[in-house]
């Protein structure tokens, strides 16, 4: 119960900060585009794409791919501390897998990016393991910021399509559960990550 209360407090703080900064923490774009990003936010982040890495990543992709070329669908899931401690929310993992499968079926010509931050990275790992190899072969790139599973391969994914961004000394990337300042600075890696995803899309 205390863990849940803490998570709710952090989510409220994150949404207040996002509002102050004018950052949109929710994205639902089912329409097909040249690039389709399926993104899972981190634990206790607001909205469905969060604040600390997703929005800046999407903005950088839009610059590189062109106006209107990028569509983003955030994964709706609890993003609770309990889910993180489970290795990634099971329902959220299944939801992400379902969104990716549906996107592959409905937008066969799109360049699909699976991405997540922190617990969202766990969802990327879990969803990839749930999806058939034929579906994963159609994924253009996979980008994870602050991966709790850092160093573990993503199931059914070509390693050349994978980019994992982890800062030195980042407690979460080291397999622990203490959130320090390194965990909150992944927006600075947006351009590097977007450059990778855009290059993969154009390969």
Task: Describe this protein with a few key phrases.
cutinase activity; virulence; disordered N terminus; 14% strand; five-stranded parallel β-sheet; alpha/beta; Rossmann fold; 203 residues; 7 helices; hydrolase
Summarize the structure.
The protein is of the alpha/beta class. The protein is built from seven helices and five strands.
Query: Into which percentage range does the β-strand content fall?
Result: 5-15%
Q: Number of helical runs?
A: 7
Query: Can you say what the CATH homologous superfamily is?
Result: Alpha/Beta hydrolase fold, catalytic domain
Class by alpha and beta content:
alpha/beta
CATH architecture: 3-Layer(aba) Sandwich
From the alpha-carbon coordinates, what is the Rg to the nearest angstrom?
15 Å
Number of domains: 1
CATH class, named Alpha Beta
Instruction: Indicate the CATH topology.
Output: Rossmann fold
Uncertain regions: pLDDT < 50 for 5+ in a row?
A: 1-7
- Integer average pLDDT: 88
Strand order of the largest sheet: 2-1-3-4-5
The helix-strand sequence is HEHEHHEHHEEH
End-to-end separation in angstroms reads 48 Å
Largest sheet, strands/sense/barrel: 5 strands, parallel
């Amino acid at each position: 119960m205390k863990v849940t209360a803490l998570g709710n407090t952090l989510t409220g703080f994150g949404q207040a900060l996002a509002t102050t900064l004018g950052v949109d923490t929710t994205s639902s774009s089912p329409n097909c585009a040249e690039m389709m990003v399926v993104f899972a936010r981190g634990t206790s982040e607001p909205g469905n794409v969060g604040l600390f890495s997703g929005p800046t990543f999407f903005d950088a992709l839009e610059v590189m791919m062109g106006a209107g070329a990028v569509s983003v669908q955030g994964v709706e899931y609890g993003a609770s501390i309990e889910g993180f401690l489970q290795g990634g929310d099971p329902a959220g993992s299944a939801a992400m897998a379902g969104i990716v499968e549906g996107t592959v079926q409905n937008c066969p010509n799109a360049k699909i990016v699976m991405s997540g931050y922190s617990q969202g990275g766990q969802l990327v790992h879990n969803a990839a393991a749930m999806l058939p190899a034929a579906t994963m072969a159609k994924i253009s790139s996979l980008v994870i910021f602050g991966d709790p599973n850092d160093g573990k391969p993503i199931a059914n994914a070509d390693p050349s399509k994978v980019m994992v961004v982890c800062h030195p000394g980042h407690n979460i990337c080291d397999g622990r559960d203490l959130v320090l300042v390194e965990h909150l600075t992944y927006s600075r890696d947006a351009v590097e990550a977007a450059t990778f995803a855009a290059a993969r899309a154009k390969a």
